[in-house]
Amino acid sequence: MKNSVLIVDDQSTGRMILAEIVRSIDNVEAITFDTPEAALDYARTHRVDMVITDYQMPTMNGVELVRELRKVVNDDTVPMVLITVDKQSEVRYQALNSGAIDFLIRPIDRIEYRQRFMNLLALRRHEIESANRNKWLEEKVQVATHELRRREVDTLFRLSRAAESRDKVTGMHLPRMAKYSALIARGYGLPVDHQEAIELAAPMHDLGKIGIPDRILQSANNLSYEDMEVMKTHTVLGYELLKDKRF
To answer: How far apart are CA 72 and CA 99, in angstroms?
Structure first.
């Protein structure tokens, strides 16, 4: 994609010379305007990679135009260059304060102007590439995080089902408890991500039953005092299994 450079100058000769300089740079498109208003209208609906504007214009000077373009473009990485015959430092200060990052003095020096423009466009391309790279990395992180989350959830359900399969009497209450826990969390006004975490964690509360002998866990009769004491240890066993894990 070509870089689009906006050239704003009310003098046709100045526009023509600046356009020739810009078009001599590879992979660049020059769009010229004779009024600041036309440039602003274009910038509202099109991509802008650099702006070159004259300072002295009838309806709006270059400093004012740069200030308005900064609001429209809303991208600090777009280089904006002010061109003027005025060598007073006050104008240069105004240009920099308005959002211009460089300024050039007339008469036009084709070699200097071209090199300045090339440098600024190279910087712009670097900023775009960095932004695209960061976006790509963010998308990769999101995909990896989603996959990790999926695996964690799968692990939780597998562990929960393992405990459920050993306890034929009370096992079916696990999914119900998960839903009840989520509803209670919602009722307390907890954030959605906390509600989801509680729903996923709730089925793990009986995980320690994996370590309880079948004769106790699957007994159809009332448990003896000794067997009940063994059954109570499932809470400790569950704690030992999960205490060092971060799901």
So the answer is: 12
What local confidence, expressed as pLDDT, does residue 105 receive? 86
> What pLDDT, in 10s, does the model give residues 109-128?
999 999 999 999 998 888 88
What are the tokens at 160?
A: 């929960």
For the question of whether the overall pTM of this predicted structure is more than 0.70, the answer is no
Place of tokens 């602003």: 40
Indicate the Cα dihedral angle 219, 224, 229, 234, nearest 10°.
10
* CA–CA distance, 10 with 30 (Å, rounded to integer): 16
Extract the tokens encoding 152. Answer: 């964690």
Burial (0-12, 13-18, 19+ Cβ within 10 Å), 207: buried
Q: Is 28 left (phi over 0), alpha (psi -120 to 50) or beta?
A: beta
Is the confidence at residue 159, as pLDDT, over 80?
no
What secondary structure does DSSP assign to the chain, as a single string? -PEEEEEE-SSHHHHHHHHHHHHTSTTEEEEEESSHHHHHHHHHHS--SEEEEES--SSS-HHHHHHHHHHHH--TTS-EEEEES---HHHHHHHHHHT-SEEEESSP-HHHHHHHHHHHHHHHHHHHHHHHHHHHHHHHHHHHHHHHHHHHHHHHHHHHHHHHHH-TTTTTHHHHHHHHHHHHHHHTT--HHHHHHHHHHGGGGGGGGGGS-HHHHT-SSPPPHHHHHHHHTHHHHHHHHHTT---
